[in-house]
Amino acid sequence: xxxxxxxxxxxxxxxxxxxxxxxxxxxxxxxxxxxxxxxxxxxxxxxxxxxxxxxxxxxxxxxxxxxxxxxxxxxxxxxxxxxxxxxxxxxxxxxxxxxxxxxxxxxxxxxxxxxxxxxxxxxxxxxxxxxxxxxxxxxxxxxxxxxxxxxxxxxxxxxxxxxxxxxxxxxxxxxxxxxxxxxxxxxxxxxxxxxxxxxxxxxxxxxxxxxxxxxxxxxxxxxxxxxxxxxxxxxxxxxxxxxxxxxxxxxxxxxxxxxxxxxxxxxxxxxxxxxxxxxxxxxx
Length: 284
What we know:
α3 (70-93) runs parallel beside α5 (114-121). The protein has helices at 18-23, 62-65, 70-93, 106-111, 114-121, 137-142, 144-156, 188-191, 198-213, 226-235, 251-261, 274-277; strands spanning 27-36, 41-53, 57-59, 99-103, 131-136, 159-166, 181-186, 217-220, 239-240, 249-250. It is of the alpha/beta class and 284 residues long. It is globular, with a radius of gyration of 18 Å. It has a single domain, classed as TIM Barrel (Alpha-Beta Barrel), CATH 3.20.20. It contains twelve helices and ten strands. It has an eight-stranded mixed barrel, surrounded by four helices. β1 and β2 form a beta hairpin.
């Protein structure tokens, strides 16, 4: 069941205080797999907090992030960060060197001592690839000078920035060339139908070309169909994630997915997107 289908139209969504959930250890970290479309292998995952209530079950993010103060959000981000870095060690010991990403609101990014937190929880492995912090496009564009300053400080601690929901804000693209951005994540609204709808296809191609021109990787978010995936591969998109490739999964189920598709191998996990593109043929 998708997040959007969990509650019926008009049904009141429960509200749980973040402080209460943290105090009772109700939060879990779930993972959305991200695949490398050129190497045809799993390259990383996005870590997302989900709340499992003892009576209400797994709740949508709106149940615990709506109308809360920044201090509570900061505590949740810190919890997600430390858990994801600890989980990375578990994945690594199983033979998977994954590049993990977390979402951090810009306002919280300014409050948290992120470099120190990463230093405190940083995996001991010498081949840890670093952490990706995802910010939405509109947050980046509000203050480019500040974003540039933050990106520089984070880079010292092996933290890179990705722009989430890219294209949704119709930003001034030319301003991105001086910002050290690791990834541009194309908004799912444009990814959906990019193989059949000319406008969406053109936007995706423009975003991919722009990412490459500014030295970033292009990531397609929310991929749901094999034809869209193949179109993105033809456009030169670097990475993809979404329900077609793998659903958002609890940690243990995500580990089972890794072992099922790849088998433990320290250097490079094997092909994970073969099944996704199988309906329309394997990509060479």
